Request: fold
Amino acid sequence: MPIRIAVDGMGGDNAPSEVVKGALEAARDQEVQILLVGEADSLHKELNKYSPSKNLIQIVASNGVIAEGEPPAMALRQKPKASIAIATELVKHGKADALVTLGSTGAAMASATIGLGLLEGLDRPAIGGPFLGLAPKTILLDLGSNLDCRPSQMLSFAVIGCVFARQFLGISDPSVGLLSVGAEEGKGNKQTKEAYELFNESGLNFVGNVEGMDLFTNKADVIVCDGFVGNIMIKFTEGLSKAFAHHVSDTLSKYLASEKAGAIALEIMSRMNNPEQTIGPLFGVNGVIIVGHGSSKAASVSSAIALAKRAVQVDLLTKLKTDIAEVMQRVRG
Amino acid sequence: MPIRIAVDGMGGDNAPSEVVKGALEAARDQEVQILLVGEADSLHKELNKYSPSKNLIQIVASNGVIAEGEPPAMALRQKPKASIAIATELVKHGKADALVTLGSTGAAMASATIGLGLLEGLDRPAIGGPFLGLAPKTILLDLGSNLDCRPSQMLSFAVIGCVFARQFLGISDPSVGLLSVGAEEGKGNKQTKEAYELFNESGLNFVGNVEGMDLFTNKADVIVCDGFVGNIMIKFTEGLSKAFAHHVSDTLSKYLASEKAGAIALEIMSRMNNPEQTIGPLFGVNGVIIVGHGSSKAASVSSAIALAKRAVQVDLLTKLKTDIAEVMQRVRG
Reply:
């Protein structure tokens, strides 16, 4: 039986057209069964553009969409049949093995938390991954969904990062660092000092504190931080990347023909962000949910579906549950 | 009477030679009187290399140096005559108007805190300034000396940033932003939510929360954060800058002759950090202390002395005291 992926057909800046296109590509190339959730009429209309392959996809009707920026919990109450809610139900009732959405991250989090529940030790879903093109194997989390974290939450992030590193990056014994302001034990704020002790007893391959530059030094495969810090870092990188792209292109065009300058500038900047990795799982919910970037085109939609498929194949969810429970048991002594 | 600057002749990677050279340049070009503090023999030996101008500088003997990485408070107890301690005493006793050191920031902080005391509302000296070459007029502080800040400490940073913006960057009515994870009021962690309310009552030109990308968007002239976040950001930028420099240079050398590629890569990277601005005042101590980068050469030593001179000329210290007291009064009122 093929793996069944519920795809939120209405989420994202380019929905439904690019979502439908990407879902079809995935259905054709990845041997997955797609349950495309959304307004039936507009999805049918899109699908009819691809008549030969349209039967690869099953449409599940929903009513309404939750937009980026809407308060998620309230929006879910007002639109209980919204695409993200219906897609989450498919996972909840075992009709789909995973969910992919390019829509509002907040709505996906709220819907998954309410519909599927959270794993032990987590108050909210966590997000993270290798977000830097220059450090494509360094995992940072949480990237913004959890603020004022307790040390035990941060320990859950560490376990999540390790499972991700093993299953998706092929790192067999991932090392874990705690993001702080000095390498020595005892450096840090109250939160990281407390987390340090807990990490030390966790049985994880904990290498101690790491600093801001260590995102680039391979000191740790998994770097854990409060979502407040993680969010500021990804947004800072985003801003820096934009500002730097202009500067690189301006500088090069002083010395090179504009076409060549543009091409080289693009090549240089391609390593700043890690756009593939803005696709990532919502960690810590009791189900496989992949959230892709709102601006995704068909190819990225298809990549997000591939990631969902792989998460199901490697049984990511069971591994997360088992590992989190085991580590929590150990620190409880 | 010329402005008198105590210079720590023993601090920094290139002490005493580059410090002596830079101090002499400053004495010659800036009409300041230099009190060079350090081991008399080695300072005399250096000064004798420049016989025509050596009389521009007065040597004040000290004994011992506190190295980067030594625990500052303990080192100061063990070496009470260390160059930084003697230089601080010159300021304390009114024999110098300001102090410049390229040595350990921690030692300068401890020495200034013990010897000169702190302004109202501060637990430790603060450091900050425009640290990004791509945003040369955006001031960020604290950059690492204050962790787990109370909202009132963060408000002091805001006032400091405004005084700096007015006196050194010529911004007449600086706007202040609070670094957080969303622009709306109510977004943030516990600390920033509390600080938000205080900032709102401060009478400062407070524009609300800003996000990581806003270091580059001119939304605020002064951006305030806990030193934990600030430290991670500057070290992250440092690491990114190094990693990126390699990448830029590798990419360019695929298309250009290596000499040209190297020169353009250097030009591109020159805008990443803001090396001039790693020289900065220790804010919040009751005296003018400028800490320069440990790797400073003569020209940077001379720039640090120029900054000290300007801080004395504009009466930075009185302005800081007055403005901090006024704002604190207002939020208490």
